[in-house]
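Re: the request from the purification team.
They wanted to know what the chain is likely to look like in 3D before they choose a buffer screen. I agreed to run a prediction and write the result into the notebook, where they can find it.
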Amino acid sequence: MIAAHCAAPARGTMHRADAAARQNAGMGTAAAQERCIFCEIVAGRLPASFVYTGDHVVAFLDIRPVTRGHLLVIPRQHAERLEPLDPELGAQVFTVAQDLAVRLRRSGFCAGTNLFLADGVLAGQEVFHVHLHVIPRTQRDGFGLRARRRAQPGRDELDATAGQIRALPE
């Protein structure tokens, strides 16, 4: 997990299936929005170190950074997951993140960046307000995305999976 900021349970205190049920049961409600730490930051009721403030999107430093300068880019409007997020607003979030990543690299602040977004409990989402991490990378920063890769699938399997994804309803 990248960061924990609000009403989500402490890591390891709730089984993922229980957490998923909790999310599905109430994270889209007005009550959940009222508990959302990012909504509190946007409303000015909690502090943040802002690096960008726009009409629809803001960006601020993560309070639990993986590297120095780790940013969170969020829509001002509450959306707990990607599905309810307006696509144009999602594009604005990505555009701001891209601009900040480019600026960080051009300035020499870092040698590269990672963009990371967790959508849902099983993806590692802990704060149920869409947020895109911009993680500055420097040599030997100690951060890395590591995963156990599957065996390389054959072309038939790749083509079949691509067909399944293309056939998904919009």
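For the purification team: Residues 1-28 have pLDDT under 50 and may be disordered.
Please add any questions underneath this entry.
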